[in-house]
Automatic annotation (TrEMBL):
GO molecular function: DNA binding; DNA-binding transcription factor activity
HTH gntR-type domain boundaries: 1-66
Protein name: GntR family transcriptional regulator
Matching SUPFAM superfamilies: GntR ligand-binding domain-like, Winged helix' DNA-binding domain
InterPro entries referenced in this protein's UniProt entry, alphabetically: GntR_C, TF_FadR/GntR_C, Tscrpt_reg_HTH_GntR, WH-like_DNA-bd_sf, WH_DNA-bd_sf
Entry keywords, A to Z: DNA-binding, Transcription, Transcription regulation
Pfam families from the UniProt entry: FCD (PF07729), GntR (PF00392)
Record has DNA-binding as a keyword: yes
Amino acid sequence: MQNEVAHRRLRELILDGTYAPGVRLTEVDAAAALEMSRTPVREALRALAADGLVRTTGRGVVVVALDPGDLEDAYQVRAALEALTAETAATRQRDGRLAPADLTALRTLADVTAETTSEGRLVEAVELNRRFHRRIAELAGNRIALETLNRVWDQIQVSTLRSLKPVVRHAHVSAQHDDLLAAITDGRAQDAGQIARRHVLDTRTTARQPPEQQ
């Protein structure tokens, strides 16, 4: 249990930028920050290394970010998996296997995400956007896809957090969320998959552009 708590808390500190790429962490420092013993922290750092969020060094670990080539690959994997989960969620909706309350909650989450994004609350918007897409993956009911997406999302988030900037095209992002939600609600599996893939690849393209081109 302590191992899981240490892993969760250290992961949160990495994902919110408290421990940014390049920061070195030792067992002693991390244990002091978490006010825990070194044993669960040691296991947590090993788990984070397996997650791809840190790499071991001669002394402790270093938080890592994906290089441009690996980041491109991560977006391609994310696009493929989100297309799969969106298509599967829409299929389950078509077959009457999703509860109306699930779609209502997803609609609410999309609205809150749009509002937060338009107001420029960037870190909060990133988390809400991830929750929206994670919820779709959960509705798909594919555990392996969800677990893989969680890892890919973590690596992308760490690698792009420093470059966060106001989303100039937030209306476009929100419209894509609306289109995706509509396709899932209507049970249009092929459309849902195509919209999800396009949305991720648009996000990748925007992330690579300088601010004046966004």
